[in-house]
Design brief:
This protein is mainly alpha-helical. It has 18 helices and 9 strands.
Amino acid sequence: MGSGKCMSLLTLLSIVWMVMLGKVASQDYGDALSKCILFFEGQRSGKLPSNQRMNWRKDSALRDGSDVGMDLSGGYYDAGDNVKFNFPMAFSTTMLAWSVIEFGQYMGSEQQNALNSIRWAADYLLKSTAVAGKVTAAVGNPNADHNCWERPEDMDTPRTSYVVNQTHPGSEVSAETAAALAASSLAFKSSDQAYSKVLIDRAKEVFDFADKFRGNYKDSVGEGVCPFYCDFSGYLDELVWGAAWLFKVTNEQKYWDFVQNNIAHIPKQVNRIVDGNLQAVNNFAEFGWDNKGAGINVLVSGWVMNSKTADPYVPQANKFMCSMFPESPEKTVSYSPGGLMFKPGGSNMQHATAFSFLLLVYAQYLKKHSGRISCGSFEATPSRLEQVAKGQADYILGKNPLGMSYMVGFSQKFPQRIHHRASSLPSVGGHPGHIKCKDGTPYFQSKNPNPNMLTGAIVGGPDKKDQFPDDRTNAPESEPTTYINAPFVGILAYFKAFPKLPAV
């Protein structure tokens, strides 16, 4: 294709995107932000506070940790089940904290609710690391739990505590926990200095444990986390990620030295599970609970951009950005006809929200340094990064071929039959009697809407053709997760403040 035709196509694409964005200028990002944060109250485990707003939920799993002599009550259920998986929970906590760090000033009154959601997780992570040389990896036997369709308030499946230690290590869950505690420390630095100090002190201890006693947690706790949250990318990315967060918070040279000395040793290609099979993928283009590659490069770019230590972080972050632009010759993601970003594997919205968050954060870093990105023949300004992120946010909130918001309770049309036990079963208030393990099966199979609204929950999302059956039994598309919502908090805060973006 000649250069003139190429430019014409790019111009046309830009116009199409601008028109799409213009039609959704009326999105209520503030309302979406409130609901996105509220979702986390529906995922709470433990003794619920008096100011609990998702009041159809009640106390649950109060004896967690009693099998190992620890108090492990609290924290979040990761998705539509009743297990507390610490690896994705810690990642969700890191992303909630990063959202407040970068965009808290735009949250208004919702900043306190965001901090409350972080504290609920951070308090639990402190309990999970209360014994030196041990880190909790999960609570609740996942196979027994997934064999039941049961309210968390009724659970009678084994609440087994899976703990990594010096002889059975788990560097990825430990290092991600350290990252979560460090990021949370920074989020609370201005509002609660005493709590902030507790968090960073514990983060240092946990990171040291993760580094000194290295190993994959799937080898140590096995069925407690696999096949649900096995780590297929290794633990070195979590160690570098944790060190980067500790350096950002403390400015201690040893953490920066760790990042610099280990970044080159993170494999260029890593494995991901796709449709039940392992598939090799490029590390620079991955980010989520299992892989921190792109997140490390974006985070570190915030303080090395235009410096002598910019390489490899800024070039790799730029490469990641180029992999997402629809018009980029280096694009590696695909897009549905309606414009939703896709990566192979289930629960696709986790990619749309996490990647969009990185786009938005990196755009702010570029602005500070008057930067832009070259993707072969295409050049992207910070505004272009923001536009792509906004396009994903608007799709999720209803600007899509079905006109459906994929956030429960937002807009007039949203998923009614989400894959979520507590939401789909009668509430304790309406049905105080115990509902046993298999007694919930008819509710799971029912075509009726869920009786309890899990406001703010973002589901796994539609297929590649923008179709969504709203089927409770289709977990990859209809199940919400904490790690889908967590990055979206920061995105919504930014667009609440800047709903109309400047032209590219």
